[in-house]
Amino acid sequence: MVKHIVMWNFKESVKEEEKETIKSNMKKNLEGLLGDIPGLLEISFVKTPLDGSSHEIALVTEFDNEESKKGYGVHPSHVKIANTFVRPYTTNRACLDYQA
């Protein structure tokens, strides 16, 4: 299995009062990819990290293998959600992939 963890901060242009709605939309849409993308076994959106965290939000996914993870990155459903609900609002992306 392959774990894929992505973390972001919000762009400075995102107002504090908008963040909860944006996070809810991200969670709903990203977690909705489960069952739509081959090899995606688990997906969990982190809306509320602990104090002292370096990033404001994160996504933790698990794939059956590395090829499935690569396919996820270019899958039309993922690209559409990322372009609509994630990329317009986020910056400072960090990613970690590892064999579980």
SSE topology sketch:
Blueprint: E1 2-10, H1 19-31, E2 40-46, E3 57-63, H2 66-74, H3 76-86, E4 90-99
Antiparallel strand pairs: 1-3, 1-4, 2-3
Helix pairs in contact: 1-3
- CATH topology name, in short, is Alpha-Beta Plaits
Please mark out the parts with pLDDT under 50 across 5 or more consecutive residues, or reply none: none
CATH architecture term: 2-Layer Sandwich
The description of the largest β-sheet is:
4 strands, antiparallel
Whole-number radius of gyration?
Answer: 13 Å
Query: What is the typical, i.e. mean, pLDDT?
Result: 98
Succession of helices and strands: EHEEHHE
Number of domains: 1
Q: Tell me the number of strands.
A: 4
**Main structural class:** alpha+beta
Return the CATH class: Alpha Beta
Task: Give short descriptive properties of this protein.
single chain, about 100 residues, alpha+beta, Alpha-Beta Plaits, four-stranded antiparallel beta sheet, 4 strands, about 35% helix, globular
Question: Explain this structure to me?
Answer:
A 4-stranded antiparallel β-sheet has the order 2-3-1-4. It is built from 3 helices and 4 strands, in the order βαββααβ. It has a single domain (2-99), classed as Alpha-Beta Plaits. Helices cover 33% and strands 33% of the residues. The chain is of the alpha+beta class and 100 residues long. It has helices at residues 19-31, 66-74, 76-86; strands at 2-10, 40-46, 57-63, 90-99.
